Hints:
Blueprint: E1 17-22, H1 29-43, E2 51-55, E3 70-75, H2 84-95, E4 105-110, E5 118-119, E6 122-123, H3 124-127
Parallel strand pairs: 1-2, 3-4
Antiparallel strand pairs: 1-3, 5-6
Amino acid sequence: NAEWPLRSGTNNLRMPIFHLQTNVKNVPQNFMSKISKEIATLTHKPESKVMVIVNDGVKMCFGGSDAPAALIQFHSIGMQIHDHANVSEIFANLLKDIGVSYDRHYIQFNAPQPTHVGKLGTTVAELNKPKEDILHF
């Protein structure tokens, strides 16, 4: 597996999100579980932080053909450009499990700022701030 280098100053919560759109019908649940485990390993985060979304059976044409194809959108706070090649290879190999060949997909990478991601009624940036000492009277 590829190592996921940490950017200096990266906060704890990376919120990895894997969103797959494919014209392959009936992608099995175990494929989603496999992706979730792989992303947890890649990002060194507990699987409880990973979100996997699969939209299967989508009307899709790639290169003028409706043969199995896919679009992956991968979002993760702290991801660096040099991570993309390793992650691309891993995702391409995983897509083979559902019949999408190496040359029939695109991957879009997004590394949002912690201030641009909401969770628990606030932002990830706020959640990652050090907790202040509570004064006890």
